[in-house]
Write a structure and sequence with these properties.
The protein is an alpha+beta fold. It contains four helices and seven strands, in the order βααβββαβαββ. Strand 4, helix 3 and strand 5 form a beta-alpha-beta unit. Bound molecules: coenzyme A. The site of coenzyme A has 20 residues, from strand 4, helix 3 and helix 4.
């Protein structure tokens, strides 16, 4: 049984940044669909991660880190769409659990933390986008999300391997 502690918008110093980038790399290399295609190194992940961390530092988005024994084992971002018309919702991005801990219920806890964080921010909806062909949409649907759109051929995983992008909404 792994107990998770959640940290909302922690200060992203060099040590935490390094640990999260390593986690993101490991999840990608275990076939996780979190913005990249394996194989990757930490240097491949860093530009995407630094951009996401930058948005957290300026308050444009939020980061929630799940730790056990002081070690980050999962995280996600809540990202706002810029502009005044979209302040009532955020997009849940890069939801991930360390590969060796997947399948034990921690992802469900992380998803529940996402909904709670969104409520705490006064949001009315959470959105997610899932890479077609991974089956991950079933995880969201099981926890109350509704599939609202499928955009064909939106994601080019490799030449000749285009995937649909599945849009989901959770009403809070
Ligand atoms: C998605 C993720 C966060 C779920 O975390 P987890 O700790 O494995 O989830 P849980 O153990 O709480 O729940 C697992 C359940 O979700 C289902 N599930 C999780 N990922 C799934 C996937 N990609 N396809 C189909 N089902 C999936 C499992 O089959 C399981 O179902 P069950 O409870 O009926 O047995 C984790 O698997 C992960 O980090 N994946 C890699 C990153 C990724 O692809 N993230 C999704 C971005 S959209």
């Amino acid at each position: 049984m792994v107990d998770l502690d959640f940290h909302v918008d922690p200060e992203i110093g060099p040590d935490l940044a390094t640990r999260l980038i390593r986690l993101w790399t490991d999840v990608t290399n275990a076939d996780g669909a979190v913005g990249l295609v394996p194989p990757v190194t930490v240097d491949d992940v860093r530009p995407l991660a630094d951009k996401a961390f930058g948005a957290v530092r300026t308050g444009e988005s939020h980061l929630v880190v799940a730790e056990t024994g002081g070690e980050p084992v999962g995280f996600f971002f809540l990202e706002h769409r810029p502009g005044p018309l979209f302040r009532h919702w955020a997009e849940l991005k890069r939801l991930q659990i360390r590969p060796d801990l997947q399948g034990a219920g921690l992802g469900t806890e992380l998803l529940q933390a996402a909904a709670q964080s969104a409520r705490d921010l006064g949001l009315e909806q959470l959105r997610a986008r899932v890479r077609g062909g991974t089956g991950a949409e079933a995880f969201y649907v099981k926890h109350g999300y509704e599939i609202v759109a499928r955009v064909p051929d939106a994601i080019r995983v490799a030449p000749g391997d285009d995937r649909e992008e599945i849009y989901l909404i959770l009403r809070l």
